[in-house]
Amino acid sequence: MPSPQGPASSDTARFRLMCRQFQWLSIFMVCSVGAVMGLTWIGAPVILWLREGRELFTPGHLRALVWFSPVVFYLFAVWSIGAAMGQLARGRLIQPTLSAALRRVGLALGLGGVMSVFVVSNLSRILEAGRGGYLHFDVAGMTLGMIGGALFLLGRVMDQAGRVQAELDEMV
């Protein structure tokens, strides 16, 4: 049955519903992956310390923490996408929402990629007394870093386009 306001209203409602669903999907992903990572990094050492009297945080735990640290940036990127989808579902304008989301997601993916390729390997070298390389050849991390940089730049371009459009609107 067609909507009384016409097909555009129906399309808008469907788009907002999909945005809300994606927002909840991103919340689920961030919470579930965050919980698993939290249990792995914090829960397991604490349980072993309480139950068996083992050392609370061993060098192995610190290495695992360093190795998985880029995940924090990637989860922030997913959270930022979900937040943007939530704003769109509530009717916020697409251009300012999208440009801010592109900048946040781009920065998070870029930092996560750089951390994965350069920081993790060098922190691991420090923790392991100089063993290991200076660079981790992680193609996925390099790709995410490049995509993140491009998204950040696209967000800035969209901001500039919005300012130019506002200026042109004032002239008319």
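[next item in queue]
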Amino acid sequence: MNAFVAILQLLVAAAFLSIPVVRARYGATATAGAEAELERQGVRKTVLTENGMRFDAGGHETWAPVGIATALAAVAAVNLFAGSGSWAGPFTWAVQSIVLAINCVILYSNLTAVTSVRAAFARKGGELARIDVPALLKAAEDGFPAWVWVLQNVRHVVVFGASLGVIGALIAA
């Protein structure tokens, strides 16, 4: 069972690593599209950078998924090399539950992007308050290949499915 759990955890780790890989490859194109949309709207294109909004692999878009993948790889190693009855079970339960919760937050953020960005821009006011957020986000999305949105959905299925598989295996053990 430990090997099964470790394999599922490594699948989840790989799913999380897909985020910075895709953003590193296509983020500049997405940023250019967003900046062009801002210029079309008569807003300075530097306003995104000035307010910490990015579409590339910088910042938390890299350190968070890489950190999660590293933690999962470490827990997978514990599961592979620790004997049954060790502290691997409780450790796995804790880490996998946290990863599952984090993915819920990511999914919620994806589903409410327009609303949350619009609210954040309204709070900051000024130029940000007059940005057409759906058009901005659409321009950024268009900078990524169409398959990226399929990958995003597959990533969620893998993370939710494998995490629930890990938790189910722990319960069954």
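[queue empty]
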